[in-house]
Amino acid sequence: MGHSQAAKAVSRERVLQVTARRIREEGLTRPGVADLMKEAGLTHGGFYKHFTSRDDLIAQAAALALAEGSAKMEQAAGKNEQRSRAGLIDAYLDKQHRDAPGTGCALVTLGAAAGRGDQDLKEAYEQQVRTYLDLIAGLDDDSEEARAEAMLTLSALVGAVLMSRAVADPGLSDELLTAVADRLKRR
């Protein structure tokens, strides 16, 4: 790969990273191309060297945002080998995760949009749900019961973070995280 092609790939990746963060913070409809390109340190005019349309950029960034969570989930589960499920729950329901949607799990921020989105977005969202379900179920014994338990756990994790971000009362926000974590770890 020549220097200009390598530079183009780096620039494209930078735009994708900026967009992935921004859609986790603001949703799929808010960030404009000019703002995204400026934040990535590029001109608006160079956009079409990297993407065919805004929809193309958003779709690729959404898929990236969703996929980035896998490594974080695996790392959280691996921190304590004897209690990997508890480690995953604690990391997901952490106040830092709640307070940093731009770097947090995209299942929380993109769920409603995926439900209304096109087939590609739904498929990317589904892939991430399946990945997390496999990870969580694998922490137990991969049985049918473990899969059902994984579905309950993932739904509670995503729902608790979503609600903790949405309520106005900081005390209730903290309580949602703490109570759900406590109940999930008892299961």
UniProtKB/TrEMBL annotation:
The keyword RNA-binding does not apply. The keyword Transcription applies. It comes from the Bacteria. InterPro entries: Homeodomain-like_sf, HTH_TetR, Tet_transcr_reg_TetR-rel_C_sf. Pfam families: TetR_N (PF00440). Transmembrane segments: none annotated. Residues 9-69 form the HTH tetR-type domain. PANTHER family: TRANSCRIPTIONAL REGULATORY PROTEIN (PTHR47506). This is TetR/AcrR family transcriptional regulator. It comes from Streptomyces glomeratus.
